[in-house]
Design a protein that fits this description.
Strand 2, helix 4 and strand 3 form a beta-alpha-beta unit. It contains 7 helices and 3 strands, in the order ααβαβαβααα. The chain has a 3-stranded parallel β-sheet. Helix 2 crosses helix 5. The protein is globular and about 80 Å long. 31% of the residues lie in helices and 6% in strands. By secondary structure, the chain is mainly α. The protein binds iron/sulfur cluster. The site of iron/sulfur cluster has 12 residues, from helix 4.
């Protein structure tokens, strides 16, 4: 059973005879309390970091203590994507597609050096230098690999971010707001982010301009 002290706002006097019977709180707080206490991560791993993520879910570290034990094998049922491991160019289109298939509200945790910035493989021919080149990351967890405790600490940071959200301002309840769909990047020898195509085209057009007399000189 929920401890009512967890959702009671400080500053409100509750008569002793009612302590433990009622809770005085705000809509934001009860809304965020429900969401932050039942974060369901998506069940997928990319490399060695995933082993630590698995350990965090097992009996010794037991993320179930924070309401995060129900790992879902479907993006439709997941709240948070833990990007656990090296993001390769081959894999990034699948990761972005899975993110797009998650319902709002959704969050992204970059677990480890690889997911945060490429890690030891940064600038490798096949590796993306961080998933934040494509997805909006809420929490970065350093380490190679981060320990299960570090992952748990990162997830608690995510809970703290959720605590600060307001039901009247979150983007998924704004009038006319649709889920933001990230363009799925192309798979190829060099990965091109379609969001940057206008920028790439204008840079190419600038480069193609004939040189001025001054430049020729
Ligand atoms: S950060 Fe280290 S442990 Fe994690 S996937 Fe990269 S190489 Fe493996």
């Amino acid at each position: 059973m929920t401890d009512t002290n967890e959702i009671n706002l400080p500053g409100y006097e509750i008569p002793p005879e009612l302590t433990g019977q009622i809770a005085v709180t705000t809509l934001d707080r009860i809304y965020n309390f429900g969401r932050r206490s039942s974060l369901w991560p998506m069940m997928f791993g990319l490399a060695c970091c995933a082993i630590e993520m698995i350990a965090a879910q097992a009996a010794r570290y037991d993320m179930a203590r924070f309401g995060m034990e129900v790992m879902r094998p479907s993006p439709r049922q997941a709240d948070v994507m833990i990007v656990a491991g090296t993001v390769t160019k081959k894999m990034v289109p699948a990761i972005v597609r899975l993110y797009n298939q998650m319902a709002e509200p959704k969050y992204v945790v970059a677990m480890g050096a690889c997911a945060s910035g490429g890690g030891p493989f940064k600038e490798g021919y096949n590796v993306v230098a961080g998933i934040d080149k494509f997805l909006p990351v809420d929490v970065y967890i350093p380490g190679c690999p981060p320990t299960p405790q570090a992952l748990t600490a990162g997830m608690i940071k995510l809970q703290e971010r959720i605590d600060k959200q307001s039901i009247s301002q979150v983007r998924w309840y704004q009038k006319g707001a649709d889920s933001v769909e990230i363009p799925v990047p192309f798979l190829g020898p060099d990965l091109i982010d379609p969001r940057r195509i206008p920028e790439i085209k204008s840079a190419a057009a600038r480069l193609a301009q004939p040189a001025t007399a001054e430049e020729k000189a």
